[in-house]
Amino acid sequence: MKCSIEKITPNRDSSPFTGDFCHINTSQNALSDMAVVVLMCVHAGANSVEFDQALASMKAQTYSNLRIYVYCDGPLKPAHEKVLSFYLNTKSGDDLIIRADQPKGLPTGLNILIEHALSNPEIIFFARMDADDISMPERIRVQVNYFLQNPAVSIFGTWCFEFAEFGKAIFHKKLPTSMNELLKFSLTRSPLIHPTVMLRRAVFESGYRYKKELKLMQDYDLWTRLLIDGYQISNIPEYLLWFRVADNFYMRRTGFRRAWTEVSMRLSYAKKVNKISFIYLLKLSLFFVIRISPEFIKRFSYKYLRR
């Protein structure tokens, strides 16, 4: 695959995102000035307005030593290019744009960004962000602070607000915070919300990557491999991201193939940690039935059964 690379300098004078974020209580202790890279992927089918909001929220972060690496998964539309040029100048600097000549998918894009980030020894922490979500201004600062206070943790995420219209949360998504809870939780659900995640550099230096052959659940696969290998994971109980629920959110979570893939991956993890039981198999069977059910059933279960 041919890729072109652009070095870009942050435009510190461009208008920051000024959405009505919820107040977050965080520690005011001085943070070490450790470089953080945010990994983002965008493709031609992405909504350019939502992409603008996502990038704007990262440019509005209160943590200053921040780099943004964007992988363009194939040629973009002029509207996307306009967003990139507004927030990211094409001068020499810390941020990076990588352009692929044809779409290769999210895991390939993230792995390429990871390799480039590892070539910079100043980068200590790796954060994820999707091209349609919105981060709280304090997100990166809070996460760096958490890493500094919890040296045993290698990867963690946060809670999030799910939304269709910004400022109006339709669901407050909470995940377990302790390692023991997350080991159990991972048997049926993903233990981390992907666009909220931050990882230590050492994780990727140890050779872990997203499996490019996986079309679905690349994040779940990575998290469970880390759990099996003994890495400490966690979630902090703060809402630091607005997670967008698009119009096709439920349609993308349907179909026999997707349902079978999800059940198979969860069953594989359960086998590896020796947690197979009759009750567990019943839960997986129910999950499979819901996944292949009509949309109104998925909406009901997604709203009420995952609490």
Describe this structure as you would to a colleague.
With 307 residues, this protein is α/β, with parallel strands linked by helices. The protein folds into 2 domains: 3-246, Alpha-Beta Complex (Spore Coat Polysaccharide Biosynthesis Protein SpsA, Chain A), CATH 3.90.550.10; 250-307, no CATH class. 36% of the residues lie in helices and 24% in strands. The protein is built from 10 helices and 11 strands. Strands 1, 2, 3, 4, 5, 6, 7, 8, 9, 10 and 11 form an 11-stranded mixed sheet that branches. α1 (48-59) runs parallel beside α2 (78-87) and α8 (256-272) runs antiparallel to α9. The longest helix is centred in the C-terminal third of the chain and has 17 residues, at 256-272. The radius of gyration is 19 Å and the shape is globular.
CATH class of the largest domain: Alpha Beta
Q: In the CATH classification, which architecture of the largest domain applies?
A: Alpha-Beta Complex
Question: What does the largest sheet look like?
Answer: 11 strands, mixed
- Tell me the radius of gyration: 19 Å
Which fold name corresponds to the CATH topology of the largest domain? Answer: Spore Coat Polysaccharide Biosynthesis Protein SpsA, Chain A
Helix content: 25-40%
Question: Shape from CA axes?
Answer: globular
- Alpha-carbon distance between the termini? 43 Å
List the helices and strands and how they pair.
Elements: E1 3-10, E2 35-42, H1 48-59, E3 66-72, H2 78-87, E4 88-89, E5 95-100, H3 106-118, E6 123-128, E7 134-135, H4 139-149, E8 153-165, E9 168-173, H5 179-185, E10 198-200, H6 201-205, H7 218-228, E11 232-244, H8 256-272, H9 278-291, H10 295-304
